[in-house]
Automatic annotation (TrEMBL):
Keywords: Hydrolase. It holds the Pfam family Lactamase_B. InterPro entries: B_lactamase-like_C, Metallo-B-lactamas, RibonucZ/Hydroxyglut_hydro, Sec-metab_biosynth-thioest, WH-like_DNA-bd_sf. GO terms for molecular function: hydrolase activity. PANTHER family: ENDORIBONUCLEASE LACTB2 (PTHR23131), METALLO-BETA-LACTAMASE SUPERFAMILY POTEIN (PTHR23131:SF4). It comes from the Bacteria. Transmembrane segments: none annotated. Its EC number is 3.-.-.-. This is MBL fold metallo-hydrolase. Coiled coil: none annotated. Residues 42-261 form the Metallo-beta-lactamase domain.
Amino acid sequence: MNLLEAELHYPFADTLPAPGELMTVAPGVQWLRMPLPFALDHINLWLLDDTGSEGPGHAIVDCGIADATTRGYWEAIFASLQAPVRRVIATHMHPDHIGNAAWLVERWGCPFHCSMTDYAMARGLIAAPSGSGGDAAARHFRLHGLMDAADIERIRHRGDHFANMVPAVPPSFKRLMDDQPITIGHRTWRTIAGWGHAPEHMALWCEALGVLISGDMVLPRISTNVSVWDMEPEADPLGLFLKSLARYEALPADTLVLPSHGKPFTGLHTRIRQLREHHDARLAEVREACAAAPQSAADLLGLLFRRKLDLHQTTFAMGEALAHLHWLWHRGELQRSKDTDGVLRFSAR
């Protein structure tokens, strides 16, 4: 455990649910974990008691990626249930959260809940690749200094990266909007919209339980990825993310946070402070580097990420570096120009 983690409290210590098993973390709230084929090797999903007028039932929050392994673990979960799944909820549109949504909805004949923006984005990315793979992504990363021709070609040919993990989304959905009360079982949950990590991320807060399903907006061990992608090349996602964090500060200090990665924890206000301090430190490093010489996003990778990165990690690191550059650029601290090699670089004004 690192020093920052030591400031948080993990009420279940190192106890984790095994794949295909459930673990109760609050009344009517069960935790399950699914594997991911990345360096970030798991996602936490949640099963909520959704007993209502139709009888006992369950609500699924987030879905895992659409592969045979994850679906096999879902089937093991379903074999242990004594009631049907009555709805599926996605906090946002990233593949580990929405990948199995269409399969789950079809299997149970139930509705799907998601924000309008993330539902539309997922449909769009299946039809027209963007983000971390495809022609537009390759041009975007080349523009920001990724010069290795082999890497650019690999990115160009990753156009099916999203669709491989999200082959479809449900044909219809129920829209989640900010500060919307949702009755799940006999309890009221309220949505909290967040921006910067995903287009319109929806966390779920239950005051009666003191539980926040934070999705990817507040994670205990790692900082949420905040990236600039090709489809919105001049975005300020870090500004949106930092502004969104303030919305969780209004929740009680003893809130039990159920994150999508890592372990459930308490210490929400402490973690928000840590995240702000983390980004302040990264911005200071970027500010200093740009004062010394013009910097592209690729130029900053060694400064911001002091470990070896594979190509998948590099695309996210590029987006994150650019997010920090854009935060300073949008606030007038940096200026941007294109060099003779066709790369955009940022320098102090």
